[in-house]
Amino acid sequence: MQYLVIAYDNENALERRLESREAHIEGARKLMAEGKIINAGALIEDDVMVGSTLFIDFESDEELDEWLENEPYVKNNVWNMDEFQIVPMKLLPKQN
Fold first, then answer.
1. In a 10 Å sphere around its CB, with 0-12 CB exposed, 13-18 middle and 19+ buried, how is residue 16 labelled?
2. CA-to-CA dists, residue 87 to 5, 57, 59, angstroms
3. Which terminus, N or C, of the chain has the lesser number of Cβ atoms within 10 Å?
């Protein structure tokens, strides 16, 4: 199932974001190669990263939960999980 994820950072999380960023990007690239993350990017306000948005595609809720349990931005308290948004959606297929 495809989802849109909107994850704003906690207050004063920029330092934790930067410390976790390499592990976050490494994991995201692995999941992109597997087709589980379709695309992703940082949310920017006043030239500062303040969150993330992702298009994801997981086969099951369990697979989605496993990703979140292991996501560095969750584990290191970067993303504000109280305001975390995950919305079921369907992307328009790409034409070759």
1. middle
2. 7, 11, 15
3. C
CA distance 15 to 77: 11
Q: How far apart are CA 59 and CA 61, in angstroms?
A: 7
CA 28 from centroid of its chain's CA atoms? 8
- Which tokens sit at 35? 């087709």
Q: Are the C-beta atoms of 19 and 25 separated by less than 8 Å?
A: no
Average pLDDT value for residue range 70-80? 97
Q: pTM of the full predicted structure? A: 0.90
- What per-residue confidence (pLDDT) applies to 94? 82
31-74 pLDDT, tens per residue?
999 999 999 999 999 999 999 999 999 999 999 999 999 999 99
Taking the alpha carbons at both ends of the chain, their separation in whole angstroms is 22
